[in-house]
Amino acid sequence: MKSLVDSMPIITCAGKNTVGKVATEITSKGYCSTKNMYYFGLKLHAVAFRRKGTIPFPEMLILSAADENDSTVFKRECVGNLNNREIYADKIYSDIPFYKETKESQKLELFTPVKAIKGESPEITKREKAARDLFSTAVSKVRQPIESLFNWLNEKTNIQRAMKVRSTSGLLLHTMGKIAIALITLIFN
Predict the structure, then answer these.
(1) Residues in domain Transposase IS4-like (predicted)?
(2) pTM of the model
(3) Residue 151 CB: number of other CB atoms within 10 A?
(4) 114 contacts 76 by C-beta, under 8 angstroms
(5) What b/e string do you get for 79-101 counting C-beta neighbours within 10 Å, with b at 16 or more?
(6) Residue 44, Cβ neighbours under 10 Å: how many?
(7) Measured between alpha carbons, how far is 168 from 22 in angstroms, rounded to an integer?
(8) What is the pLDDT at residue 17?
(9) With helix as H, strand as E and coil as C, how does the chain read?
(10) How many CB atoms lie within 10 A of CB 20?
(11) 145 Cβ contact list (under 8 Å, min separation 6)
């Protein structure tokens, strides 16, 4: 079994110097490196089954505040429920000591693009560059469908734009309602 892991922002207001005033008990300020933007809102984390030739099917969907680290949320909320599988994720999820333990106890194997190693000599970096680039490209190709899942979800429901929401219950209704609609569409189409 192969699972794909990633997150996407749900934006209640955007901008570097803006202060969010909606649902402040569950939202916070975060940064989305993919979109290169600061925003106030939530993050939608997904763990999805990889299906060749089509978008992945969500296994777990989790909401967190925008300032929470993706890896921390994944370790806290998801890892305990996953066994006997390969997981493909971003560089942010690479925590080698943690996953060495889970590899043995839960038979989880994590694949992420290779992160630069601090303090590594330039000679070793140059020598290993080709192998690391090939491995990172292979991992990125396997995990690319989760980006397609988020794109499909946003196209069908416009879930990322929660700027007209004015309360905590409104934000939760906006998010959960759109996820429900998308999952029903995914199941019956």
Answers:
(1) 5-168
(2) 0.89
(3) 12
(4) no
(5) beebeebebbbbebbbeeeebee
(6) 23
(7) 7
(8) 67
(9) CEEEEEEEEEEEEECCCCCCCCCCCCCEEEEECCCCEEEEEEEEEEEEECCCCCCCEEEEEEEEECCCCHHHHHHHHCHHHCCCEEEECCHHHCCHHHHHHHHHHCCEEEECCCCCCCCCCHHHHHHHHHHHHHHHHHHHHHHHHHHHHHHHHHHHHCCCECCCCCCHHHHHHHHHHHHHHHHHHHHHC
(10) 18
(11) 4, 50, 51, 54, 55, 56
Residue type, 4: L
User: Measured between alpha carbons, how far is 103 from 86 in angstroms, rounded to an integer?
Assistant: 10
Q: Where do the domains of the chain lie, and which CATH numbers do they carry?
A: 2-188 (3.30.420.10)
Residues in the chain, how many? 189
Cβ–Cβ < 8 Å for 91, 109: no
What amino acid is encoded at 170 in this protein? G
- pLDDT attached to residue 97: 76
Other CB atoms within 10 A of residue 10 CB: 23
Helix axes 122-157, 168-188, angle to 10 degrees: 90
